[in-house]
Specification:
The complex is a heterodimer of chains A (77) and B (204).
Chain A lengths: L4 E6 L5 E5 L7 E3 L2 H15 L2 E5 L5 E6 L12
Chain B lengths: L5 E5 L7 H13 L3 E3 L11 H11 L2 E5 L15 H15 L8 E6 L18 E2 L4 H15 L7 H20 L5 H5 L3 H15 L1
Parallel strand pairs in B: 1-2, 1-3, 3-4, 4-5
Helix pairs in contact in B: 1-4, 1-7, 2-3, 4-5
């Protein structure tokens, strides 16, 4: 089973989705990337999980770890 | 690999097409079918056309992407491999008889009517339009396979979500194994397919 994580993904039309790993649908949709990332970051911190920000093709633009990653990337915010 | 489960992938395999190719292959694997392509055998001694004919012969399903047949700049040749292989596939279905009569194919394009300017013989064919959107590729391939292979497939949103989960886990796997972001972008398709198969086997 996938490990617990939050994903910010640009929508094919407009806006940005935040999805929990394993979920069938987005938990929330935002107009801007910033709003989506802020929300997903809060969720990931609360859940002590990973945050992945995806590009439109699914590849990873940025990852931040709020869980047990032994070498977590620095969150600049 | 059985005829009934094989899906011949006739698409560009260059890096520019990877954003559409990755979700396309993932959808086929996620739905329990086997993507087949000329890349799976790296024997340089075997002419490519022989490999392609074998794949067409061994695959009930085929996905032909014609969205890159148009030359992008003056002086560039347009690409004929995809329509040529589509022709071989349609020919196999039409002339070989037996189980090959039931072969099915999906033609993908970026825009709805553009391909007719190049291949008017295909006018009035039902094609899938992906608008160069990776998420749209998932939808088109899922809907077509669900119908033609008689599946009870989960919805496109679920598959798109699973694809993003896979991409994240594969990113972790590769970075922890010394891959840079550029290496990950350029990961050979055969290697990527193996990772997808492992992930789907573990997570579905």
């Amino acid at each position: 089973m996938s490990k617990k994580s939050r994903h910010v993904v640009p929508n094919k039309s407009d806006g940005w989705s935040v999805r929990k790993s394993g979920a069938s649908r987005a938990s929330k949709i935002f107009d801007t990337q910033k709003e989506a990332v802020d929300y997903a970051r809060d969720q990931a911190k609360r859940e002590k999980s990973e945050l992945y920000i995806h590009k439109k093709d699914g590849t990873i633009r940025q990852k931040n770890s709020y869980g047990n990653d032994p070498c977590p990337p620095k969150d600049k915010k | 690999m059985s005829f009934e489960n094989n899906v011949f992938i006739n698409c560009p395999f260059d890096e520019k097409f990877y954003p559409l190719l990755r979700p396309l292959i993932f959808t086929v694997i996620y739905l329990g079918l086997t993507p087949r392509s000329a890349l799976e055998s790296l024997d340089s001694g075997q002419p490519r056309i022989h490999k392609i004919i074998s794949l067409i012969n061994e695959s009930k399903f085929a996905i032909h992407d014609l969205s890159r047949i148009k030359a992008e700049k003056i002086g560039e040749f347009f690409r004929l491999n995809m329509p040529f292989e589509l022709g071989l596939d349609v020919g196999c279905r039409s002339f070989k008889g037996g189980k090959w009569k039931n072969k099915k194919c999906l033609i993908l394009e970026a825009e709805k009517y553009r391909y007719q300017a190049a291949i008017s013989d295909l006018s009035n064919s039902d094609i899938g339009v992906h608008k160069n959107e990776p998420e749209e590729v998932v939808s088109e391939v899922r809907n077509w396979l669900n119908n033609e292979a008689g599946l009870n497939a989960p919805g496109p949103s679920k598959i798109w979500g699973a694809f993003n989960d896979f991409m994240a886990e594969n990113y972790d796997r590769l970075t922890s194994n010394g891959f840079s972001n550029k290496d990950i972008e350029k990961l050979p398709i055969t290697e990527l397919m193996n990772h997808m198969k492992e992930w789907v086997a573990k997570n579905t």
